[in-house]
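Work Package 3 committed the consortium to producing structural models of liganded targets before the mid-term review. Because experimental data for this complex are still outstanding, the team generated a predictive model from sequence and the ligand definition alone, so that downstream docking and mutagenesis planning could proceed in parallel. The input record is reproduced below exactly as it was submitted to the modelling pipeline, together with the SMILES string for zinc ion.
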Amino acid sequence: MAVPVSGSYRGFLTAPAGASQRLDLRIDVDKRIDEGSVLQRVSGDVFSIDKVVAPGQPPKETEVYLESWIMEHPKVVANGNATTITGEIRFWNAVHPKTTATIRIPSTPADAPAAVTIEKQSSPPATYSCPPAGKFFRALHLEVDVCKSVNKEPILPTYGTHSLKERPPDLTNRTLTIERAYGEAGIEMVIRGDKRDIIDDSAASFSSWSDAELHNAMEAHFSQYQGAWPKWEIWGLLAGEYDNSNVGGVMFDYAASLGGPGKAPERQGFAVFRKHFWFDSLVPNPKTDAELTAARKFLWCYTHESGHAFNLLHSWDKNRPKSLSWMNYDWKYASKPEEYWKAFRFRFDDEELTHIRHGNRPSVIMGGDPWSSGGHAEAPPGSEHLRMPPGAMTSATGDVPIDIEVSSQPYFEFLEPVSIELRARNLLSIPINVSGTLHPEFGNVTVYVRRPDGRIVEYMPISCKLAEDNIVELSPAGAKDSSDRHSRSIFLSYGRYGFYFDEPGQYFVRAVYHGPGDTLIPSNVHRLRVGHPKSVEADRLAQDYFSYETGAALYLGGSPSQYLEDGMNTLLEVVDRLKGSLAAAKCAARIAYGVGRTFHELDEKNIVRRKRGGDTKEALQLAELALKVFQAQKKPRHFNIPVERIARAKAELLLRSGNVTQARSEMTKLAGYLHKHGVKPSVTKKIEADAAKIKAPKAKTARRSRSAPSRKKR
Ligand SMILES: [Zn+2]
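The resulting structure, written out as C-alpha cells with the ligand in place, is given here.
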C-alpha cells in the first residue's frame, strides 16, 4: 500500500524564472490523522515575495498574499515510486481560464518535495517545488488569559469520550483537549502556555462583562494583538460572568462597522464564562455525571467559540440544523439535549472541515477585516455574484516598503459625487520611486469597492491612459517637508459599469498599488457611508442623476457636448434645487471648470470647429457656490482638498477673464484658509508661490488638462 501523502507542503516557484512566489499546498486525499476525515480535496495559497535591499541594512522582505485555489475532484494515482494527483483547480476570486494542476510526490525519501505544475490556457506552465510541512493543513496559536475571580483548575478543557453513557455506541474512546479536537479537524493548534495573563476583575463595582469590555481586555492583554493582521492567532479569555448571565461563551470580537464593539480587524477573540451554571460542577478530576457533563460542556464551549474565529457559522444559520457538529447547540438539535450527545462524534461536519482546511484564506484566517466577512467556503447556491474580482483579497505581511492609504470624508450625501484620496508614503530610510499618476486610469492602482449588499466590485475607469509613468521620488521616511509622501484624489462615483455609490448604506474601499516590477501593495480598508435622500426632491432627481449622461458629464468634469446636454442639465438642476447641500456643492465643483472651458467639437463635415468660448461667468458662480458650502462644513478639514481644487479652478477662471488681481487674491486667500485649517506649511507656501507667479495671460494660454492636476503633497 502506498504511503499516505496528505498534509501540507510549502515551497517556491521554480519556473518561469523572474517571479518570486511561494505556494502553501494542502493535500487531503488519504488518512494521516487519527479520527480525521478525508475530504478528497487539494488546495493552495499563493504569495508573492518582494525583497527590498537598502545599502547597509538586512534585506526587507514583504510577503503579499495573492489568492487561493481549490481542487475539488483530485484524481489520485499511486504506484511504487510516487503518488500523482491531477485535476482542475478553481480560484476563489475572479475569473481564471481553465487551470489544471499536476502534483507528483515521490515515495522516497520521506522529505522529497512535491513537484507542482500549474497549467493555465495559453500561459507557460508554472512549477513549484514544495517540501512536506507536516500532517496538519493549517497551524495556529491560541493564547488563553484568565480572570482572577475564576483562576482555578481546570482552565483548559479535558474530556474522555466514553465518560458519559450518551454517546454513539461505536465512538472511539479517546481523551479530548481543545488541541486534540482541532488536531482531528486537521488544524495544529498550539497553546501559548507562556503567555497566560491573569486579569484582575476583583473591583467591587465590577460584576459582568460587556462585549466592549471584552474587546478592551483583548487589546490590553492579547500578546499578539499588535502588528499586522490577518494572522493565525486566537485569543481566548476564561472570564466570570457575561452581562447576560444565560450566555456561557461568546465570540465577542466583531468590528464596530458590523455592530460589534471593536475596530477592524475582527474574529480574533472569544470568551468562556466560568460562572455560568453549566460549569457549577466543573472540577479538575470529574467523576459524577454532573461533573462529567460540565467537563463535556466546557470542551464543547471552547471548541465552539474558537470555531467562530475561523468564520464558521452556527449549524442552523447554514440551514443544517441537524448537523452533528461542534457548531450546533445540543438544546437546538432536538427537544432533548441527550439526543445530540447520543449521536455527536466530537467533530466538525464535512462542510465545515472543507472551509477550515481548504476555504478561501481571507475568509478563514483570523483578523480578516469586514471586507471578507460573510465569505464562507460553503456559499449558498445563487451567490455566484459574491465572487470577488482578482486582487480584491490581497493582503501583505512583513516589511512593506510603501504605505498606501485610502481616506475620504466618512459620510457622503445621497447624490454627492464620491472621491477618495490615495496617499503613498515611504517607509524606508532610502528614497524610493512611486508612480506619480496613482490612478486607475493609468493602470498603476486598482480600486475595489464593497457595496452595501456585500458585493465587491472593481472600480473601472472609463478611460485607460497609456502613458509612460511619471515617476515621483519619495524622500526617506519622516522627511520634515512631507516629501516622503505623495497623494492623488480619485473620483469614484462613475466608471465603465455605471455608478458605484448609488445606494444609501455602508461601503468599503480598498486600493492595491502596482509598483515597478512585481510590487503589489494593498491599502487599508476605508469605510464610508452614503446617506439616504433627505428630501422628495433629491429622491426624484435620482432618476435622472443615475444615468449615463449625468455620469459621463461628472466623470469628464463638465462637458458642453450636445450628447451630454441632458446630463449637464440634471447636474445644474441638482446644484439649483439642493442648494446649500454637499451634493449640490460637489456637483458644482466637479463641472465648474468644464463649464468655463473652451470646447471643440465636430461639425456635420467632421471638422473640428471651435464650438463655444466657455461660460466663464456661470463657471465662476458654480465655483463660488461650491466653495461657500465646503467652507461652512462642521469638519472643514475633510474638505481641504476640494477647497483647494475649486479655489485653484476659480483663480484660473478669473485669470482667463482678465482679472489678474482677483486671481492672485483668490490664491492668497486659499493659502490663508488652508493654513488656518491645519494644512502643512509646505503646501500653503507652494500656493503663495503660485499666487506670486500669476501674470496676465499671453494670447494663447496653455490649457491645463483635467487629467493631470497639480501634484499635491500633504
Ligand atoms: Zn456560537
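Reviewers should note the following from the model. Residues 374-386, 700-714 have pLDDT under 50 and may be disordered. These observations will guide the Year 2 experiments.
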